[in-house]
Write a structure and sequence with these properties.
about 0% strand; elongated; mainly alpha
Length: about 160
């Protein structure tokens, strides 16, 4: 059964729900079809079913006719998964994190370590991107100066 009382969710899931986009329906009235969730999240129905199959999502509640019915808690979890994907976290690590979250509070240390490792990776990527941005800024300035001076910016450099 899908959790609708968010107080029983891990704190990180509750924290991720505090973003600027309110959920479309209040808790208790939050039964979304897979098509609605796909539209709200930008994920395909295939991806949503795959997330469930590989254990990235907890069991999704079903209607009397067998259709998946997602809750606000599921949308909050998908928001977190989206953030983890953006960090570059591997699917295996996301599944491990999901398993740890479902296992309960006694896994806080392991979850924290996994997130800290991911944070270190993100900081490394940010530093790499900042270096790349500096090169781009230098080249943009180079071309702007060359255009202002009326010289060919392609002469003598890449």
């Amino acid at each position: 059964m899908t959790v609708t009382d968010t107080t029983s969710l891990p704190a990180v899931v509750r924290a991720c729900s505090a973003g600027p986009d309110p959920l479309p329906r209040p808790d208790g009235e939050d039964r979304y079809t897979i098509s609605e969730v796909a539209e709200l999240t930008g994920l395909t129905p295939h991806t949503l079913r795959w997330y469930e199959r590989i254990g990235l999502m907890q069991h999704i509640d079903r209607s009397h006719s067998g259709q998946r019915r997602y809750s606000n808690a599921d949308l909050r979890w998908l928001s977190l998964v989206g953030k983890l994907r953006l960090t570059g976290m591997s699917v295996a690590d996301m599944i491990r994190y999901a398993e740890l979250a479902r296992a309960g509070e006694h896994t806080f240390v392991e979850r924290q370590e996994l997130l800290q490792a991911t944070r270190r990776d993100v900081l490394t990527r940010i530093a790499e991107l900042q270096g790349t941005l500096s090169v781009l800024d230098y080249k943009i300035d180079h071309y702007a100066r060359a255009r202002t001076a009326g010289t060919d910016p392609h002469a003598g450099s890449a």
